[in-house]
Structures are given as C-alpha cells and as structure tokens.
Structure prediction request, 356 residues.
Amino acid sequence: MVYKQREFPWTSKSIVKSKDYCEFLFWLNKIEGKERKEKREDAVEGTNMHMVFAEFYRALKPEHVFTDEFTDSRTSIHFHPFRRFMYEACMQFVKPIHREWGKYRNIINNFSTLETQRWLNLNSKLTDKGEIFSYFKPVGVEKTLLYEPIHMFGTIDRININVMSDGSKKIGIFDYKTGNIPRAITSHIYTGDIFSWKLRTDMMKEVHFYGLLYLLSVGWQLSEKVIDFLENPDWWYVKKGRMDYSQTLKQKSKYLTSLGNDYKLWKDGKYLNKGDIIVGIDYLNGDKPYHVTKEYNYSSHKSVLLSINDYRSVVHNKYYAKHPVVVFDEEKCGYKNCHRFEKCKEEVKLYNSIKT
Prediction:
C-alpha cells in the first residue's frame, strides 16, 4: 500500500467522542485548545483507575488465582471470595491517601464484580488451568498505538482473548468508563444478564475507533479510496459552494456508501467479517457495573471514518471561527438535559462578542 505524503491532523478516540457529544466543548477543547478545568479532576480519577487495573494485571500470576474457593460458582458474585481478592489486590495499587475515597472504592468494586463474572465463565468453559489463566489475563493493558499512515493514535485499556459460548476464540477490545453512565444504559430493560448489555451502533462508535486502530496496527488495511477520503484535503470541507454543514456530511456519507466493499478492512485477500473481533465498554461508576459488548461492524466503522474526516475538515477550514454560534445547538443540548446547558449558552454569547 502506498500512502500519499500530506500533512493532516492526528485523530484520537476522545476527538471522535467529544465531537459527537458536544460540539461547543469540542470546539473549545480540540480546535481552540482551551482545557476545561472542571473536567481535570474526573480525568485524573479516570487515569488513576486505568493504571490501577493495568498494574493489577501486570502483577497477576497463576498462583494468585487457583484455589478451590476461587473457582466455586455457587456463591453469589457480590459475596464471592474471588471478588474480594480482586478488590484487595487492586487497592494495593491505589495511593494510601486515596484508599478511603468513596468513588475509587466504588469503581474498584464494580471492576471486581465484572472480572469475577468473567473468571467464573472461563472456569465453566475450560478445564486446563493454563488456558484459563491465559485467557483471563489480558494480552495487553493500557497499550498505546500509533498508526502513522492516517495519523490515528490512542491507548487501549484492555485487549482480551474472549472465549465465546460456542468455544471459539476472538480478540476483544475494551474501554473503561469511570464517568457518568449514559441514560440509554441505565434505562435499558433488564434482560436477566447485566454482563451482556448491548447498545445501538452510534453509541459504540468511539470504541470502534479503538477496534479500527488495533486492526490497522496488526496488518489489516483500508483501500486506497478510503485512504484518499481521510488524507486528501479536497475532502476536508465543512462548507462548499451552496451546501451547508449537514449537507456536506450527507455527501460524505453517500460517498462512503457508494464505495461498496472498498470501505471494508482487508488482509491477505480476505475481508474482515462482522464478529471477527469484539469491542466493548465497561461502565464502572454506578450503583452496579455494566459490560456493553458488540461485534465489530461496518456501520460504526463508517461512522468513525466520517468523524475523522469531519474533524480534519473543521481544522482545515476553520469554518466555526467565522460562525461559532453554529456549534451550540439549543434544541440538541436541551434534549440531552446537560448540566452545562445554561453555562454553555452564556459562554457562546461571550465567545461571539469577543470574536466580533
């Protein structure tokens, strides 16, 4: 594959996420480069927890986990000794001054619950201890990847080899969430299995970014037409001719659809099929944990490609520098019932007055 040598912006999962969630904060954070101080504490807490889980797995050895009481599936998850073991082991990697913090304790409790369920599931499917341990211990934690050809980067929280119900083995790419849990999760109809919730495609877009980044890093490829779509400045526009912002996005989406199989990932002459790998999110900051999984699919894959192109369009054109009020949509922000609604509304007014 020959890639064109052009300068264009680097893209991360946070960029894909923030643009989708709040256009005004996206503009301030990613385009203007103004850090939001109110988010810094949550970000530090999240980073701390990610490192705690990573250090737990890096230190984990087979002799730590193979006892009769740890493989007993009759005890409820909440009172299971393996869960207590995980909680106490993770706490060893928390700074002493933080060990009494309620939020940290709750997040580690929820993490231990999900991973205890995963441990027991593996013990119910496999008999060889070496296999059980090799599948329980992730093949990668806090793994930072850079994909130079199209300037993608990110740190994947956990890479597992998942043992499926039919016995097949699949790579699983997982992201930890230690902030607010989306209403779409907490209001989901209970199905009897809180460990296998599924979200619609658009809500899994950001973890599909990680899936795409991982696949590209291990040798899967995008077609030259898609590479051109991502790196050619001719595609980087938000307003062109008489088309407005939404019309240009529709045109880009229509273009990707017209590519047929060209937008798919391929390796050694084979296309990646739905379900070849799994992507998921562990929501850990609630009264109970949620483990959301989805087979990697091309609907979210295309959505990621559009988001990358859209971000580069904004950077390239500086469209919002002339029309900043466009990034604040009262109807959308009001619908989301965001706690920042009134604050953002005032900030937009101030922002516009300064610009003008």
